[in-house]
Structure formats: C-alpha cells, structure tokens
Amino acid sequence: MLNDFEIAKSAKKEPIEKIARRLKINKKHLIPFGQYIAKIDLGIFKELKNKQRGKLILVTAITPTPLGEGKTVTTIGLSMSLNKLGVRASACIRQPSLGPVFGIKGSAGGGGYAQVLPREDFDLHFTGDAHAVGLAHNLAAAFLDNSIFRGNPYNIAADKIYWHRVVDIGDRFLRKVKVGLDVDTGKFSYDTGFDITPASEIMAILALSKNVHDLRRRLGKIVLAESATGEPVTAEDIKVAGIMAVLLKDAIKPNLIQTIENTPCFVHTGPFANIAHGNSSIIQDEIALALSDYVVTEAGFGADCGAEKFFDIKSRESGVIPSVVVLVCSLRALKSHAGICKITPGKKLAKCLTEENLPALEQGLSNLKKQIENVLIFGVPVIVVINKFSTDTDKEIALVKQRALEYQACSVCLSEVWSRGSKGGIELAREVIKQAKKENKFKLLYGQNSGIKEKIELVATSIYGARSVEYSDLSENKIKLFTKRGWDSLPVCIAKTPLSLSHDPALKGAPHGFVLPVKDIRAFCGAGFLSVLCGDIQLMPGLPTHPRGENIDLDDNGDIIGLQ
C-alpha cells in the first residue's frame, strides 16, 4: 500500500486556472503562486453580491485520540463524493501549523485518496500567511517595548503586559522568558513568553474579519497591556495597527488548491480549536458558498471544541448556519474511550484496539452519545460517519449504527474515502443532500447579555458535562474588570485539552460531575471573544521524544522526503 506522500506524488494535478473555472472564478481574480496554488483577490465580492448561497456542511468528530479520527479526510472525501454525484461542491479547510507538522500530529491535509495537492507546499510554508501573522504579532510586541523604552508615555506597568510573542513551531523552552536584559533596557525587564502562532489573536482576527476594513478595525482594538492605573493600551494607541494591517493585506485573501480528484479546495487561516476557535475564515466560506451548491468545512477536534466554537463564535459573527453536521468516529477511538489501551503516536496500535471487542466498544460509545447531544443542543441535524478501518468487524459496525440512531442521529454512514476516494463516500454524500433539504432549528447556547460566568458555566455543564466551575483568584479579578469595561458582552472561547470532554486528558468517555478549573481569562477584543484558559492547557506545545521532523529531508534529487 502506498503511503500518503507517494499517493500525492502519483496524482495528476490540474493547473489552478482550470480548478477555478470549475467554480466559474474569473482568471482576473486569481493571484497565482506557481502552477497549482492561487490566492483569490477580494475584488471577487463585487461579482458575488446577488449570487444565491449554497449549503454549508460542517464536519466535526467525537473526542479524538492523538492520531485524529479522519475529520479532514472526511471533509475532503465528502466534497469529492458530492461532485461525483453531479453537484458543484468545494471544501474549506484550515492551513496547518508547522508545530504539528514537525511534532506529533502531522499535516492537516487529509490522507490516502482523500487529500489535498500540492502536498509539500500545503504542509510547509504554503503562501506565507502564517508567517505574516507571526510578523504582525511580533511587530506589535516590538512597538510596545519601544514605547516603554522611549519614555513610557502610557505608564505601562511591567506586570500588566499581556502580549506574548509567537513562533510557528513547538518549543517548550520559550513558554516563559524574561526580556529587556541588555545594558540599555535592563531598567525595565519583564517576564513574558512565546505562544504558537495559531494561538495568536491575530490569527483569530484574520479568520473572523469580513473584509480589509474590518481587519484594520479589529487590529486597532487589540489590548496589548495596561497602564499602572488600569487603563487598557491598544495597538491603535501605540500606532502599530496600520502597519500590521499592511503586513496582512495579502494574508486576508483566501487560497485555492485542489483535492486529489481535482475538486476545488479553499484554504485559509489556522486557529487551533483547543486554544482558539478552531475554524477557517468567514471570507473563505462566503466566497465558497457563493460559488458552490455545497461547501464542506471542518471544525477542529471534537464537537465540544471546534463545533461549539463554530456555532457560538463564528456563526454568531457571520450569520452562516450549517445545514447538516457530519460527526466522524472510528471504532478504535471509541474503544480507547473505554480506557482499555493507550494510543501513542509513532507506535503500533495495541491489539485491544484492532481486535473485536464489543464490551469495550459499548462502553466507549458514551462519548459518541455526548457529542451527538452537543450538536443537537444547537438544533442542527447530525449524520454519524464511521471512518472505516480494515480491522473493523461487521458486528462492531452494526453496534455503532444501532446506538447512533438510538442517540438521535438522523442517519449513520460508512466512509471509505481514505482507501477509495470519492467512491467511498457516495452513501454519505447522498445522505447529506437528503438531510440538507430539511430546515433545522438552530439556536445559540447563550445570549450576548449573559454574564461571563453564565456563559462559561453553560458551556462547561451543557457541553462538557461538568458539575460546576472553579475560578482562580486571577480569573475572578479579570471577570470583575472585564465586566466593568463592558467586555462581558463578548462570547467565550474556552481553551482546554482536546483529548477529553473535560479539562483532564486522562478522563475518557463521557465524564461527568467534575469541576472545570478556570486559571486565567484573556480579553481578545480585536477577535471579539474572551479566551478562557482551563486546566493545564499550554499555548506553546513542546516536541515529542522523536519529532516527525527527524524523518523529513531532501533526497539526492533535491525532492522532499518523509512528510507522509
């Protein structure tokens, strides 16, 4: 069996102009990056004003293992299967971070016969959007430090500087650093740290902005620090917002590539779902929906993370509501939720996960039940998809199908798009078309006027299954401060582990009765939400014992090897 990279290398790519023609995109709106990648100029919106919008299909998942359960594979495969049925479909996904690419998880471009091309460019620098985000973010930090050095006109206190720097690799040694130690600035040194670029508020802003003017406005509202008397200091105050917008003027334009079967695929922004809101850009969705009958997009990690944030943050901002949610599961992941075996990336799966085990599967199905419930809370119908592996048995598949329907999924489908491409997702595509014709009863989890604690506690108890929420002194003080400033009207974006419905990755299945610990809250006023940090969540990941980057190299011909 060929690996992902070998399959990608053997696939026939079409020129990006031809891919664009499938969606009737005029060549004048393409900004080519080589032969197979292009950015879409935002001038296209003038031609899209009166176009009827297609239907949005949101792909999410059960609580995943560290290996992932095939959410991106399903997103890409479903878009290809819909095209196979004769409707005009496209996919919308996020750009991967080099942290996972070089670390544990790897690419976010699918796999097997359901992946995007050109794979090497997609996995690595792509069109430089992530680098632009990092540069704009760090420039704000440099301007802030310079303002302090040049007389500190805003009387900024060293312990009230909130703006970390960012870098797009995993490096635990940068989590806590002290800056300002040289001879000239030693009189004002302070403790800070680095976050990974997808955790940057600027990445979230890029994903939630509706146009260039909205981007510029949001950048100006970023709160970088506070004065000694408690007044917020913004990017607008220190006169850096304008140049930040200049650095992002191309990054705000979405990218167009293709799937392995030449289906159009938009790629834009890359916020993590365990840290940020975990969804690709509003601009990308708007363009794709105006040009397609069906747009398949994904929300990061499980439904408790990316899907909840899609609804409560992205849909609230854009007004775009999915017609159907596709919830992906795998039998190995469900069995792992019984706690019988640990899954470690890079190591062979234990037999207990690859052999038939109906009792373990029954126990692990509690996670599927809760994640179906989490979507139904928002009033959107759920199709459960079993991402099929060769070790799955007929009895196990039958049990999952039976239980999923009992849990109020509208239907259950098998997916074999990884091994068969579009042919392996025809059943799912037909079911999506059928269910998307029905009206849903979408509703948000909480209103704008709910208090900060009420919003956090609704997510914790309704979505995660917590008994209650415990707040640190720091978070209590910030809730009082943010409420006083009127920021309590913002939605909450909870940062927690993606490997459990709770804050503790060791709690599998559907834990309940636990207390969710809130350690800190950050005001992301530009992005338009409050970032709530729970448990031991890290905004800067570290590298594993054997990073994937160890295997990446150039061969004798100068071609990349080891990205699979």
Provide tags for this entry.
single chain, 564 residues, alpha/beta, Rossmann fold, Domain 2, N(10)-formyltetrahydrofolate synthetase, Formyltetrahydrofolate synthetase, domain 3, 3 domains, 12-stranded mixed sheet, 4-stranded mixed sheet
Question: Can I get a quick summary?
Answer:
By secondary structure, the protein is α/β, with parallel strands linked by helices.
Number of domains: 3
Could you tell me the mean pLDDT?
Answer: 94
Summarize the amount of helix as a percent range: 25-40%
Measure the end-to-end span.
Answer: 13 Å
Q: What is the tally of helical segments?
A: 20
Q: Could you tell me the CATH topology label of the largest domain.
A: Rossmann fold
- CATH architecture name of the largest domain: 3-Layer(aba) Sandwich
Query: Beta fraction of the residues?
Result: 15-25%
Question: What does this protein look like?
Answer:
The chain has 564 residues and is an alpha/beta fold. It has 3 domains: 4-128 and 251-436, Rossmann fold; 129-247, Domain 2, N(10)-formyltetrahydrofolate synthetase; 452-534, Formyltetrahydrofolate synthetase, domain 3. It contains 20 helices and 25 strands. Strands 1, 2, 3, 4, 5, 6, 14, 15, 16, 17, 18 and 19 form a 12-stranded mixed β-sheet that branches. Strands 20-22-23-21 form a 4-stranded mixed β-sheet. The longest helix has 21 residues, at 129-149. The radius of gyration is 23 Å and the shape is globular.
